[in-house]
Design brief:
CATH superfamily of the largest domain: Ribonuclease H-like superfamily/Ribonuclease H
Shape: globular
Strand order of the largest sheet: 17-14-1-2-3-18
CATH topology of the largest domain: Nucleotidyltransferase, domain 5
Enzyme class: hydrolase
CATH architecture of the largest domain: 2-Layer Sandwich
Protein name: CRISPR-associated endonuclease Cas9
Keywords: Antiviral defense, DNA-binding, Endonuclease, Hydrolase, Magnesium, Manganese, Metal-binding, Nuclease, RNA-binding
Number of helices: 37
Pfam family, one: RuvC_III
Radius of gyration: 35 Å
GO biological process, one term: defense response to virus
Strand content: 15-25%
Length: 1028
């Protein structure tokens, strides 16, 4: 049996090709290898294309702004309100104070050019237009900043309203030296000023009496492109293909989402269990009349039920309370809004069902419109208001509502966007959800396969299609499939996975089985990755605090086990969960109390902190290889005491609800057991579905040819089989060598149900105090792995694509002044920079000596740190303007600067270096920036110039990710190009170095003298000469 083992990470793929005998007692490693590629996100988790798209959007906005101002200027010139652009009069008119004109213009006559100047200024400063139809569910990294700015806008607009002044009047009347820019206002106050200005000026200017001209001016100033969705990005319903998707703001969607959460709700802690029918019904009734319910509100809703049973709901804990639903449960927003407005008569309202369906749909149609079959746009505010007004009359006529009720209804805003399911599909799901079925079970569980067959006969079906190799993204269907993934990390990993697997198939043929393991980070969203990082930082902080506490209490050099025991002691509130004994600090180290696995490790295979607690030694020995329930079930009174005690330990600084749930479990759920062998996450599912295409698609009955195993299992097998010693001498896994991914892949390839059973038996024997040996897949696996690892040539993805930022963002002005030094001629440039971003050395490069003295003195008087000195700003003079930006002088070699439309910019990254040998046998090189490489493409020249001046000979070019091989010398082996310096130095790193400890920076000349040769390493580590 040939097996491909694959270890997938966010920047790596380790692979192993293993031949196992039919009885699985003999094996052979045919190939081990590693593929390394760049992360598809920035270090902060932002997708690489997000910055590029943001910059493109900024360029687009600047272009549209210029076009809008140019067209408006032409309109004002044609009406006689402005002189021709660039004429002598133009500069004179533009020098007028626009704020003074706007102040006077709402009270008295303005001359034509004065009016034009005021209108032109309004068009440039039309301020923020409030977000249309914002989605409360949308989460944004900038939400806090946006909320702060919104507060500033509301405060300013309120003060403006109380003063009775227009925006222009308010700014014009500010004292000299007080900034007029940077004010947070709204589009509405600018529109109000515009209307007042035209009303006052209309008697004095005949053109303004023409309604069409007034409309043209208003359109030119305030017109804004509509917000839209591209329909092709909405996806499609997999249960009823082609059916329209259900809007999130519909009653059906809101009901589905509410029932999904309620059906997943369970009580945790000492009395862990699902909700019963009475409890579930009470929560649904309450959620149907309110937008959301806090967790104290949930407990209050259940209190009457528990009181009737002689119990209390005050101490209840819920499984969702500490997860994504920390704020509480969301109700049916549509139902809650309808019942609130209709009032007491809602329950008996005859047209209840019709109004539920009609109102969200009608409001949506009033606010949105289809543009062909490609887009959905948000209608203009005036059009939305008009359509909603018409809707109110229809509500009165068709549903018998009062004027007041109709007015309240047309003010409602429901969530925007669409479900990933069609309306027809959700109508079929709803009765099952109302009966308590879990939504995930309905959509995916094998138990409901027959139900899905009956209700969704047209859903996506197996096609029987099979591929000899994974298809290329150039294939239209494959490109469409990848476009649906929407996660850049998953897309990058799948592209590299395709290259590795297809090359392995070319070498060894199609495997009988593929096993894969995925890193936890693969497939996670930015928010999820941030939460994971935050949790890791918090855990690291807790461990550090525990270490300090232990040292202060006399444990001079605490071990990892000591720290873990301390954390478990704090988590359990310093008592034994099983006996209730209080545990003193000294008791931790006497052997009286031990770290115990709640679910026996031999059964759960779980050695994580989440499966550990403290236990008195005699109880631990007596409990043995059993669940807490199995140990205490003969004494129900004690069992109830244990559950109650553990329930009280749950809290923010105590035990997690998940751990408390483990204590109370009466059996280990099959779902948990399955998760120990298989990963069911999004990225894992996508990887499996992609690889499964190598075999016929015949549906659920198809044999499982792609298995996904978890790192929790493979880590223990790797250590138990002694494979940690292949790259390390201390028996611990090393991550400093990329080849550890290949060892992981070997373990993955060999992990099956039988190996897991042997692992469980081995762990049980160890827990019983014996010293067993874990059976290895075959006797010589360690020796075979060592030999195969020594042959690995780590493959790195080469980055030769001519794309990326042409230059750095800062634009410099050319002074034309040069300075000659020993290292070359430097040109002086100037640029502007906000004072709060200055460094101490940059203060000394401020061009204006007076400004330099003022800033230097200000920083000295405010603590000496420029980064903290500018909470307020210095002024040029006592009554002069604030100094917020300063002009700096810097110098740079002109050859390292890129000419741009408005000055110069640093070239930024280098694309490659070209290496030649001259006719006198000397090495010369030319570093080619990305700016120059793109210029060559534009001129239709080769990106790499192989022609050397004066008859020299081209040797090779080197780009980031290229591989160099040295046969001899101290650099013997394979090296990867990390970067190229403008001075000609090449930053190299050994191909298998994962933590950057082997960095060298030779020149191109020394590389050639030491025998460096460029080679090509394909995705599976095959080496070929390269002469490009």
């Amino acid at each position: 049996m040939r097996i491909f083992g694959l270890d997938l990470g966010t920047t790596s793929i380790g692979f192993a090709v293993v031949e196992l005998s039919d009885d699985k007692n003999e094996g052979k490693i045919q190939r081990l290898g590693v593929r390394i590629f760049p992360e598809a996100r920035d270090p902060d988790g932002t997708p690489l294309n997000q910055t590029r798209r943001a910059k493109r959007m900024m360029r687009r906005q600047l272009r549209r702004r210029r076009e809008r101002r140019r067209s408006f200027n032409e309109l004002l010139v044609s009406l006689g309100f402005l002189p021709a652009f660039a004429s002598l009069d133009w500069a004179s008119v533009m020098s007028l104070d626009p704020y003074a004109l706007r102040d006077r213009g709402v009270c008295a006559e303005l001359q034509p050019f004065e009016l034009g100047r005021a209108l032109y200024h309004l068009s440039k400063h039309r301020h923020f237009r409030e977000r249309d139809l914002g989605d409360e569910e949308t989460k944004s990294d900038e939400a806090a900043k946006e909320k702060e700015e919104q507060g500033e806008r509301e405060s300013f607009v309120a003060s403006l309203k109380s003063s009775g002044l227009t925006l222009g009047q308010s700014l014009a009347r500010r004292e000299s030296g007080v900034r007029k820019r940077g004010v947070h206002a709204t589009r509405a106050v600018v529109t109000d000023e515009f209307n007042k200005l035209l009303a006052v000026q209309q008697p004095y200017h005949a053109a303004l009496k023409d309604r069409a001209i007034r409309g043209a001016i208003e359109e030119a100033i305030f017109a804004q492109r509509p917000v839209f969705w591209r329909k092709k990005t909405l996806g499609s319903c997999r249960f009823i293909p082609g059916a329209p998707l259900c809007p999130k703001g519909s009653w059906l969607s809101q009901e589905r989402r509410m029932l999904e959460k309620v059906n997943n709700l369970a009580i945790v802690g000492g009395n862990a269990r699902p909700l019963d029918h009475e409890e579930r019904a009470a929560i649904i009734r309450a959620l149907s009349t309110q937008k959301s319910m806090s967790w104290p509100g949930v407990r209050k809703t259940l209190e009457p039920i528990f009181k009737a049973r002689g119990e209390s709901a005050k101490g209840l804990k819920f499984n969702l309370e500490y997860g994504d639903e920390k704020g509480g449960l969301k109700g049916n927003l549509v139902e809650a809004s309808l019942s609130k407005i209709i009032g007491a008569g809602w329950d008996s309202y005859a047209q209840k069902a019709e109004l539920r369906d009609f109102l969200p749909s009608a409001l949506w149609e009033a606010d949105y419109g289809d543009v062909g079959d490609q887009r959905v746009v948000i209608r203009l505010e005036s059009e939305r208001a008009s359509r909603r007004k018409v809707l109110s009359q229809r509500l009165i006529a068709d549903f018998g509502l009062s004027n007041e009720q109709a007015e309240e209804f047309i003010k409602l805003d429901f969530p925007q966007g669409w479900e990933p399911f069609s309306t027809k599909a959700l109508e079929i799901f709803l009765p099952q959800l109302e009966q308590g079925a879990r939504f995930g079970t309905l959509t995916s569980s094998p138990d409901y396969e027959a139900w899905r067959d009956r209700n969704f006969p047209e859903r996506d079906r197996p096609t029987g299609e099979v591929f000899d190799k994974l298809p290329s993204p150039k294939d239209r269907d494959e490109a469409r499939r990848i476009a649906q993934l929407r996660n850049p990390t998953v897309v990058r990993v799948q592209n590299e996975l395709r290259k590795v697997v297809n090359n392995l198939i070319s070498l060894y043929g199609k495997p009988d089985l593929i096993r894969i393991e995925l890193a936890r980070e693969v497939g996670k969203s930015k928010r999820e990755r941030e939460e994971m990082s935050a949790a890791m930082r918090q855990q690291e902080r807790r461990r550090s605090e525990a270490r300090n506490e232990l040292i202060q209490n006399g444990r001079t050099d605490p071990s990892r086990d000591d720290i873990e025991k301390w954390l478990l002691w704090q988590e359990s509130q310093r008592q034994c969960p099983y006996t209730g004994d209080m545990i003193g600090f000294n008791d931790l180290w006497t052997g009286q109390y031990e770290v115990e696995h709640i679910w026996p490790r031999s059964i759960s295979l779980d050695n994580s902190f989440a499966n550990k607690t403290l236990c008195r030694k005699d109880i631990n020995a007596a409990k043995g290889n059993r669940l807490p329930f199995d140990y205490f079930k003969a004494d129900k009174e004690k069992w109830e005491e244990v559950k109650a005690r553990v329930g009280k330990m749950v809290g923010r600084n105590g035990m997690s609800p998940g751990k408390a749930k483990r204590f109370a479990a009466e059996e280990i759920a099959d779902a948990f057991k399955n998760r120990q062998l298989t990963d069911t996450g999004y990225a894992a599912r996508e990887a499996r579905s992609s690889l499964q295409r190598l075999w016929p698609d015949i549906g659920p009955e198809a044999p499982v040819k792609v298995q996904i195993v978890t790192g929790r299992i493979t880590a223990q097998l790797r250590k138990g089989w002694g494979l940690n010693n292949v790259l390390s001498d201390d028996g611990e896994k090393t991550r400093a060598d990329h080849r550890h991914h290949a060892i992981d892949a070997l373990v993955v390839a060999c992990t099956d149900g039988g190996r897991i059973q042997k692992l469980a038996e081995w762990l049980q024997e160890r827990d019983e105090g014996r010293k067993p040996t874990l059976a290895v897949p075959w006797a010589a696996i360690r020796e075979d792995a060592t030999r195969a690892t020594e042959k690995i040539v780590v493959s790195h993805r080469v980055r030769k694509k001519v794309s990326g930022p042409l230059h750095k963002e800062t634009i410099y002005g050319d002074t034309g002044l040069d300075e000659k030094t020993r290292s070359g001629t430097y040109r002086f440039f100037v640029t502007r920079k906000p004072v709060e971003r200055l460094s101490k050395t940059e203060i000394e490069t401020i061009v204006d000596p007076h400004i330099r003295d003022v800033v230097r003195r200000w920083v000295a008087e405010h603590g000496g740190d420029p980064k903290k000195a500018f909470t307020t700003f210095p002024k040029v003079s006592e009554k002069g303007p604030e100094i917020r930006k300063v002009r700096l002088r810097t110098k740079q070699q002109l050859t390292l600067m890129a000419p741009v439309s408005t000055g110069y910019a640093d070239l930024g990254s280098n694309h490659h270096v070209e290496i030649y040998k001259t006719v006198d046998n000397k090495v010369s090189s030319v570093v080619v920036s990305l700016f120059e490489a793109i210029g060559r493409l534009g001129r239709k020249e080769p990106v790499v110039n192989r022609n050397c001046e004066n008859g020299g000979r081209f040797i090779m070019s080197l780009a980031q990710g290229d591989t160099l091989h040295f046969a001899d010398s101290k650099m013997k082996g394979f090296w990867i190009v990390q970067s190229i310096w403008s001075g000609g130095q090449i930053v190299l790193l050994r191909a298998n170095d994962a933590d950057g400890q082997s960095v060298v920076r030779p020149t191109t000349g020394s590389i050639i003298r030491d025998g460096g040769r460029k080679v090509s390493v394909d995705p599976v580590g095959r080496v070929r000469p390269a002469n490009d």
